[in-house]
Amino acid sequence: VIKALHQRRVDGIILAPTAGTDRRALDYLKGKGIPSVLVDRIVRGEFDQVGVENTVACRELISHLIGHGHRRIGFVAGAPGISTSIERLEGYRDALHRAGIPFDPTLVCCGESANEPARRAVRELLRLDPRPTAIVASNNLMMIGAMHALRDAGIEVPAGMALVGFDDFDWAELFNPRLTVLAQPLEDIAMKAVELLTRRIARPDDQFEIVRLTPELRIRNSCGCQDQR
Questions:
Q1: Phi, psi (5° rounding) for residue 136?
Q2: Fewest 10 Å CB contacts: which of 17, 166, 210, 211?
Q3: CATH code given to domain 2-52+184-217
């Protein structure tokens, strides 16, 4: 796709790397000198990039649960080896450390950033004795998988399990209870990416910039709080 866009003589490209993004794609952009901006996942290399502050934001989300008395907090991590997964897990561990809660590796399961793997991961968490009192899904697809697993087990949210997630989505409004999440500033990310790209096109020799924006903690009631929107 990148080669096709290049052949069409586009002025620049905004790319959202995924777990399956071929390194050759990034090498092609760099080798051909195509003005480019990467969004969401931060990767190594010389590119302008826009993402969110995952570690601090996730720490805030976990601290919110800890503030409500939770000590056994299950964490459904994303696909291994990608920056968002690594940084959000760091935020989880940091929040526990600051609260003096020992890290328990059995409370962390890999949901592979997808629905069904997350469903299986939450099932594993529910088999623990004692099981967690709260679960964090570290993206919206894994949130759906977590909700499926809790429904399968007949566990109500939040009465039987607090549930929070990273990423908001339009149809979250349809859920009952309403979901407590960290919402990424998508419009701001897009606007900043375009700003960086137009600057790169105009001044190709400028120093590369990595911009981190802050997600918003939207406290509703899947965490056990009253809806505060």
A1: -115, 125
A2: 210
A3: 3.40.50.2300
**Which of 41-45, 83-87, 158-162 shows the lowest per-residue confidence on average (mean pLDDT)?**
41-45
Alpha carbons 209 and 212: distance in angstroms, whole number: 10
3-state secondary structure of 132: coil
For 47, counting Cβ atoms within 10 Å of its Cβ (0-12 exposed, 13-18 middle, 19+ buried), the class is buried
Q: How far is CA 59 from CA 54, 96, 221, in A?
A: 8, 8, 19
Whole-model pTM: value is 0.89
For residues 125 and 107, the answer to whether their CB atoms sit within 8 Å is yes
Confidence of residue 227 (pLDDT cuts 50, 70, 90): low
**In which residue are the tokens 């601090």 written?**
56
* CATH dotted code for 54-183: 3.40.50.2300
Strands (E), 40-138: 48-52, 73-77, 108-110, 134-137
Express each pLDDT in 100-139 by its tens digit: 999 999 999 999 999 999 999 999 999 999 999 999 999 9
State yes or no: pLDDT of 193 exceeds 70. yes
Largest CA distance in the chain: 59
